[in-house]
Every structure is written in C-alpha cells, then in structure tokens.
Amino acid sequence: MPIHRKGQKDDPGNYRPVSLTSVPGKVMEQIILSTIAQCMNDTQVIRPSQQGFMRGRSCLTNLISFYDKVTRLVDEGKAVDVVYLDFSKAFDTVSHSILLEKLDAHGLMGVLSAGLKTGWRAGPRECW
C-alpha cells in the first residue's frame, strides 16, 4: 500500500511502498542485522567518524563534530570548504541485487546471503 510522503498527491514519486512483514521475516531481519553488525565491528569497516545509523550517534552528534572540526580549522587559519549533498531519494533507487553482490564481495553475509537470494527473496516483491 503506497504511503504519501510529501508534495502533491497526484505525483507517484511522492509515495513510498509499504508491505507488511511477517513475524518470521522480522526475526530473520534481526538475525541478519546482528550478523552484519558483528562482522562490521570485528573488521572495523565503519570509521569512528560515522554518525548516521549508529547507536548513540545522531544528526546532532554529527553537527557537533562538524562544528568542532570547522572551528578548530578556522582557529588554525586554514581554509574550509563545505559541500552539502541531499541523498534523501538516493536509496529509493538502490538495486537490491547489486547490494547483495557487494555484501558478498565484502564477506558480510556468507551462507546467509545465499539463503536470502533463494528463499526469502521469493516472498513479496515489495521487500526487494
């Protein structure tokens, strides 16, 4: 069922699809999440400067970190350039097959990804 996000209601790009996930699907999501999180912690894939989607870090901690760094550089007399990018719609167009291939290439999913490609993916297309 499409949910209206923002803007004009007659523009299909202003809606996002929503599908109901079964309890086994939710359990599988938690298993996948913990597997990926553990692997990323073990291999230190995510840098300490990563703020988004990290427990205990947010837009506010990102802003404080950014402000602190810019202030320090300006105090040292160094030039500072800032570029703002809006990726709000970028993830609506991510190819899930490419995403799964990249997870495999980095060794994050292993046998679990093979199960996802064959079994779970056979479910509702809205999820993928």
From TrEMBL:
Domain Reverse transcriptase positions: 9-109
GO molecular function: RNA-directed DNA polymerase activity
Domain of life, per lineage: Eukaryota
Keywords recorded for this protein, A-Z: Nucleotidyltransferase, RNA-directed DNA polymerase, Transferase
Coiled coil ranges: none
Protein name per the record: Rna-directed dna polymerase from mobile element jockey-like
CDD domains per the UniProt record, alphabetical: RT_nLTR_like
InterPro entries given in the database record: RT_dom
